[in-house]
Automatic annotation (TrEMBL):
<keyword id="KW-0012">Acyltransferase</keyword>
<protein>
    <submittedName>
        <fullName>GNAT family N-acetyltransferase</fullName>
    </submittedName>
</protein>
<dbReference type="InterPro" id="IPR016181">
    <property type="entry name" value="Acyl_CoA_acyltransferase"/>
</dbReference>
<dbReference type="Pfam" id="PF00583">
    <property type="entry name" value="Acetyltransf_1"/>
</dbReference>
<dbReference type="InterPro" id="IPR050832">
    <property type="entry name" value="Bact_Acetyltransf"/>
</dbReference>
<feature type="domain" description="N-acetyltransferase">
    <location>
        <begin position="2"/>
        <end position="171"/>
    </location>
</feature>
<dbReference type="InterPro" id="IPR000182">
    <property type="entry name" value="GNAT_dom"/>
</dbReference>
<keyword id="KW-0808">Transferase</keyword>
Length: 171
C-alpha cells in the first residue's frame, strides 16, 4: 500500500538513489556517460536534492511502498524564465518522479495534488515547471491538470543542452 509523507533528513541517501535511478531509466540513453554523471551529481548528489530536505524554501513529498521510496515531488522558489515570471508569485515544481513499476497506480496524481496544494499554501498564483520536449506522456499528464505550454527552456545535462517546454498552471 502506498503511503505519503514529507521527506526527512535521513531519507537523503535513499531519495538520491531513487531519483538517479528514475532519471537514468527514463533519459539515460540520451546522454554521454560523462554528461549523465555530471547531471546526476549536481541534481541528486549530496549538495543537490538531499541538501534541500528540510530547507525552508523547499518542500519534498515522498510516496513509499513498505517504507521504500517509489516517488517524490519537490517544490520551491521559481527559477524558470517563463513569460510574465517577474509579475507572478510563482512556485516551481522541480521534480515529480515515479518509478516505472508504480506509474499508472495513482502515485503521480497524488503527488501532483500535493504540489498544487503546497503552492497554494505558499500563496502562489502560478505553478511552473519544465518538461523534456519529447516526454509526451508527462506533458499530457500536466495538461490534464490545466498546465499550458508557454515557451522553450534550455535544460543542461552536463555539457549537453536539451530543449524543455515551460509549462505553467494558474492557481
Amino acid at each position: 500500500m502506498i503511503a505519503y509523507r514529507d521527506a526527512m533528513p535521513g531519507d537523503g541517501p535513499e531519495l538520491s538513489a531513487m531519483a538517479q535511478r528514475c532519471f537514468t531509466d527514463t533519459f539515460g540513453s540520451l546522454y554521454r556517460a560523462s554528461d549523465l554523471a555530471a547531471f546526476l551529481d549536481r541534481a541528486f548528489g549530496a549538495d543537490g536534492l538531499p541538501s534541500q530536505i528540510g530547507a525552508p524554501d523547499f518542500a519534498i513529498r515522498l510516496a513509499t511502498d513498505d517504507g521504500r521510496i517509489v516517488g517524490f515531488a519537490k517544490v520551491g522558489p521559481n527559477a524558470l524564465p517563463f513569460p510574465q515570471a517577474e509579475d507572478a508569485n510563482a512556485v516551481e515544481l522541480y521534480q515529480l518522479y515515479v518509478l516505472g513499476g508504480y506509474q499508472g497506480e495513482g502515485v503521480g496524481p497524488a503527488l501532483m495534488d500535493w504540489a498544487i496544494a503546497e503552492a497554494r499554501t505558499r500563496a502562489a498564483d502560478t505553478l511552473a515547471l519544465s518538461v523534456y520536449v519529447d516526454n509526451h506522456r508527462a506533458q499530457a499528464f500536466y495538461r490534464r491538470y490545466g498546465f499550458v505550454d508557454v515557451g522553450r527552456f534550455d535544460f543542461p545535462v552536463g555539457e549537453h543542452v536539451d530543449e524543455d517546454r515551460l509549462m505553467v498552471l494558474a492557481l
